[in-house]
Amino acid sequence: FLSFVTSNLSFLLVCFAHPCPADYISWYENCYKLVEEPATWDEAQTACEEQGGNLASIDMSYDQAFVAGVVLQGKADAWIGLRRKDGSYTWTDGWPVFFTQWGPGEPSNIKDEGCVSMHASIWFHGTWNDTKCDQAKSYICKISSGKTKQC
Predict the structure, then answer these.
(1) Is the peptide bond prior to 107 cis by the omega test (within 30 degrees of 0)?
(2) Where are the domains of the chain?
(3) Model confidence, pTM
(4) Cα–Cα distance between 18 and 12 in angstroms, integer?
């Protein structure tokens, strides 16, 4: 009996202590991961979906600061889950767009620029840029609470 209780307790502790899959970082019941292997926006979204998530949506300034500082860490510009379709921007996970962090002069809304990346440069760190979807960039995946597969 003691062995059964101990093994189940260990399982529960692991699940509560590590709510995110390996290589993901937990933040407010969501899990984030920077993938440094460059991909187009569509390839990046597909890769995130295969892990049970989407390209990252950013709902408020606290999420923005976390993703820019802890996840991106100034490594390289990275795709996030915002895309322009039919003249308006939408998040891949369906969240409404009520927070943005556009860089100076952005979004430029140039015809072929409809996918959004987060700047890593020291001058524009964390700001957003609409750019061509077929460019290969690092990307940030997000798995929302209740969708993690580990436990």
Answers:
(1) yes
(2) 2-143
(3) 0.83
(4) 10
Judge whether 55 and 80 are in contact, CB under 8 Å: yes
Mean pLDDT, 10 residues at a time, the chain of 151 residues: 36 51 91 96 98 95 91 90 94 94 95 94 92 97 71 46
Number of helices followed by number of strands (H, E) in the chain: 3, 8
CA dist., res. 142 & res. 53, Å (int): 5
Residue 106: count other Cβ atoms within 10 Å of its Cβ: 18
CATH number given to 2-143: 3.10.100.10
SS3 116: strand
* Ramachandran region, residue 96 (left: φ > 0; alpha: ψ -120 to 50; beta: rest): beta
